[in-house]
Every structure is written in C-alpha cells, then in structure tokens.
C-alpha cells in the first residue's frame, strides 16, 4: 500500500527517496552534483582519463575503451529517466538512480549490479564478455539476474575495472599518460593473478596442485559461472560488492566539489608507477583490503593505489637481519595492528608439497606483539598471499592467536622448556605456523591441529603432513599510523634510559670496603691460616 501511495504522490515519493539517499550521501552534496552534472551525467560518472599498463598479465587491447565506457554504462542503466536540473521530476529520477546503485542492499545484489555495469561497458567497448542480463519475466520492475560464465581473462579485466574505480576515488581528480593528454606516467595496474587463481580454484576450474605455480592468466582455460563467482566474492573478496556504490558516491562528491579543476591534476605524484619491491605488493594489499570489513580496509586500499608508506615498515629481514632478537628489537613497544608477511620455499620434495616452489603467507593482528611463553591475543587472521590468495579469519572456537617467546634474560632450569620463536594457531609445540628462533625454518601444519583459525590450505597442494620450508624474507608492517609510531619511539627511548642506568654502578651506595663482609671473605680465601684477633 505504501508503494502505491508514494507512486501516485510524487512529493511523498521524493521525500522517501531523499531519506534513503541521505543515508549514503548528504543531500546538499547530491543537489550540487545534480545541478552541475545535469546534461552530462555520463561524463560526470566517468573516471579521470589516464593510460594504464601492467607488467603481468598484459593489458587487453580493449581495456581503455572499456574504462572510457564505464560512465555512459552507469548513466544508461540507472539514470536514464533524469530530466532537466530545474524539473522536480528530474530530481526525482536522479534520486531513484542514485538509490538503485548506492542504497544499502545485500552483497549479492550489489555484486549483480556491478556485473551488469561490466557487461554493458564490455558491450559498448566491443570487449569479450560471457555475461548476459535476463530481466524479470513478470515485468515487476525488479533488477533481473545476470547469468553466464567468466573466463580467466575476463575475471582479470573485471578486477582491474574495480581497481580503477577505487583508484579514481582514492586518487581523485587525476589524469595521466597519453590517453588523457597529460604528461604523467601511465598508471601501473596491480597484479591480480593471485585473485584470479583464487576464484578459479574455489570454483574447481583449476586444481590446487603443482600446476598453480606456472599458471598464467593469458593461458585461458575453463571459466567460472556467475553463481560460483558470486560465492567466491562473498567468502573471499566481499569488498568487490561495494565498488559500484563507492565509485558513484566519489564521482558525485568530486563533481560537486569542482568539476573543472578535478581533471587538471597530473598523476605523477598520486599513483605508483614503480614496480613492487616489497612482499606487500599493491596487488596483495588490494586483495587484503577486499577481504576486510573494518577500518584497516581503507589502509590497504590506499596502499594498493599509492603504495605503503616506508615509515610503516617496522622490520625486514633482508635489511635488519634474520633472527628473533633482531625482529624483537624492531617491533618491541609497537601497540597497534601489524601485518607479518613470510616468504618461503619448500626444502624437500615430499608427497604433499612440491620442491623449490616459492609461496607466501601472512598474519594480520589488530594488537601489538608481546614476549610471552603462552598464546595470547583477541583477534587475528591468517592469509595465503601467493600464488593463491586466501583469507582465514578466526573460527571463534579457541584464542591461540599469537605465540612470541624469546630466551629470558635470566635463564633458569626448565624441565620442559618452551619453544623459542613465533607461532600462530594450534597449541604449544604443535603450532599451525611456527617460525624458529633463527628465522631460517618455517613449519606449516594442517588445519586439523588448529581450532583458532578457520580451515583452509595456506600452501598449494598442502597435505596432512607438516611442511618444513626455508625462509626467504620476513616483513612486518605497522598499521597504527603516526601516533602509534610516536608511542613506540617514546617506549624505546625510555628503555634505552633504563638500560643505561643499569650499566652504571654508583660506588657511593656501598659502605666502607674495610668493614665489608666481602673483604673479610677475600682475606680468608687469600690466607686462611693467618692469625686474626677475635672481636669481643
């Protein structure tokens, strides 16, 4: 009844649409965007012109045309009934279109809208696409459904399109390369091979075996159905569902601010054009941001666009040296979220892991590290960073999140000494991940030994037997920001003062040496037969 009443009464429907839209973006900002973009909504919803390049896999020939058709596709799908700026019906149509793509809806529905935009942009650009849109048969005005299959190359193009949408919002008002007529360097797209491979393995299109190390997107192969792709997104990369609404809001926000000046800035200083040199590449940072649903997602999203701030790098074994003591000297006192990345390769060719194949895993914790001989922590997540990306959040059954134990300064006899090293999940002596004291050997066990983190393989072709690997590199990134770094600096300075005080010996605090019991004992040892007067 409410729907029919609002349809017959335009003013009442406008109020309902305004209330719904204000939950996503402020109404004054929307009115400014509507007045400035009226007549050129396709241009307002288009990303800044730029040239894009990729080291691996190569950029498809039609990718730039697809990006250029992104704005017209969104305008035709959602804002087709927008009228003139001074018309109330035009404002109502603008609100309807905005709410269709930006209102809060289930994640599967928002992903379906994104796939519709991708299919429409591909059709306009002449790019290959295996998706089709089927409208509702009853004609009730629903969104319909998207069916079909995505080939590996199409998944890579879809992921790149989503990254460009995030890039245009995180680095707004930029243009670069020859496409936009600017002098900036082409924007370097992140490597998304680990995400494409994750989707294919999840759908069963690629086997989780030795073949994943030599797999390339350009090889092609079996595709992924829309339902399987949706299941993978909801379980691994839920942030993809928010790409469309986030992009439209950022475009309107930029349009309302200054639609002319917004396109006159060069990308020379706003986007990374250099190759990745750290374990935390821009592609891996973006994958982590898609899997998170907290404030750290924005941190990793920014890192995927402009790279991580090198001041946030707390420890790198190739720079600071390997070993738990060197590691602890760099991370001690940091009371904020950290990301630990490990790169290793299998040392022996067993039945369950292939020989000399590099792989990477990571641990994301929202609290600092502490030197304890027991497990501690309130929340953390494990992830496989390459060659396949997986995120394993807490299971909620146990709380054996982190184990970090160094040799005590004052050693005492222990009948059963605790292991020295870094551990995550499992139990003491049977950790799911354990890094030894010298940072030379990494042990990864099957998820059956662990009830803290969710089940899943951290290494391709992982079996039930423990995997021992040689460590190549270790990185620790601090995610707490400048305030947390200042607190760590203050902690280190305070510890340095205490250490210096412990080194100094104030002789004035001691009594007279001639009357001290230490001198009497020394005299007795030097000449025990000497005659001494007994004091009475």
Automatic annotation (TrEMBL):
Pfam family, one: TLD
PROSITE patterns (alphabetical): TLDC
Domain of life (superkingdom): Eukaryota
InterPro entries: TLDc_dom
Residue ranges occupied by any TLDc domain in the UniProt entry: 278-480
Protein name per UniProt: TLDc domain-containing protein
Origin species: Oryza sativa subsp. indica
């Amino acid at each position: 009844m409410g729907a029919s009443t609002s349809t017959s009464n335009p003013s009442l429907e406008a109020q309902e649409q305004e209330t719904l839209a204000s939950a996503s973006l402020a109404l004054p900002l929307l009115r400014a965007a509507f007045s400035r973009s009226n007549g050129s909504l396709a241009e307002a919803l288009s990303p800044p012109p730029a040239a894009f390049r990729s080291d691996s896999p190569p950029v498809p020939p039609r990718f730039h045309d697809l990006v250029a058709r992104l704005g017209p596709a969104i305008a035709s799908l959602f804002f087709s009934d927008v009228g003139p700026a001074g018309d109330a019906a035009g404002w109502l149509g603008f609100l309807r279109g905005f709410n269709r793509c930006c209102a809060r809806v289930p994640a599967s529905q928002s992903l379906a809208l994104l796939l519709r935009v991708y299919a429409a942009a591909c059709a306009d650009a002449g790019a290959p696409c295996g998706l089709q849109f089927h409208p509702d048969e009853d004609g009730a005005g629903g969104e319909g459904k998207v069916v079909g299959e995505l080939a590996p190359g199409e998944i890579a193009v879809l992921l790149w399109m989503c990254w460009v949408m995030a890039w245009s919002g995180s680095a707004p008002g930029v243009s670069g390369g020859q496409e936009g007529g600017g002098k900036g360097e082409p924007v370097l797209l992140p490597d998304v091979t680990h995400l494409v491979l994750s989707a294919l393995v999840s759908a069963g299109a690629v086997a989780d075996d030795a073949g994943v190390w030599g797999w390339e997107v350009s090889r092609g192969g079996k595709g992924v159905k829309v339902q399987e792709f949706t299941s993978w997104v909801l379980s691994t990369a839920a942030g993809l569902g928010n790409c469309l609404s986030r992009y439209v809001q950022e475009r309107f926000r930029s349009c309302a601010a200054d639609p002319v000046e917004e396109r006159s800035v060069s990308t020379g200083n706003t986007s990374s054009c250099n190759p990745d040199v750290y374990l935390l590449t821009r592609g891996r940072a973006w994958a982590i941001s898609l899997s998170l649903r907290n404030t750290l997602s924005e941190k990793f999203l920014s890192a995927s666009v402009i790279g991580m701030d090198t001041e946030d790098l707390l420890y790198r074994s190739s720079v600071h040296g390997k070993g738990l003591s060197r590691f602890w000297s760099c991370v001690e006192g940091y009371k904020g979220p950290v990301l630990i990345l490990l790169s290793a390769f299998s040392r022996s060719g067993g039945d369950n892991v292939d020989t000399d194949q590099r792989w990477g895993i990571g641990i994301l914790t929202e609290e600092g590290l502490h030197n304890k001989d027991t497990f501690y922590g309130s929340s953390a997540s494990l992830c496989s960073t390459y060659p396949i990306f997986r995120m394993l959040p807490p299971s909620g059954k146990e709380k054996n999140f982190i184990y970090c134990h160094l040799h005590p300064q004052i050693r005492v006899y222990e009948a059963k000494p605790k292991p020295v090293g870094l551990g995550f999940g499992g139990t003491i002596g049977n950790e799911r991940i354990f890094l030894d004291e010298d940072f030379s050997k990494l042990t990864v066990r099957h998820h059956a030994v662990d009830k803290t983190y969710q089940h899943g393989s951290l290494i391709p072709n992982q079996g039930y037997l423990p995997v021992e690997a040689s460590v190549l590199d270790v990185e620790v990134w601090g995610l707490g920001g400048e305030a947390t770094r200042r607190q760590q600096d203050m902690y280190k300075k305070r510890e340095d003062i205490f250490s210096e005080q412990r080194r100094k010996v104030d002789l004035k605090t001691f009594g007279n040496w001639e009357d001290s019991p230490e001198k009497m004992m020394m005299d007795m040892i030097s000449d025990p037969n000497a005659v001494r007067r007994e004091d009475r």
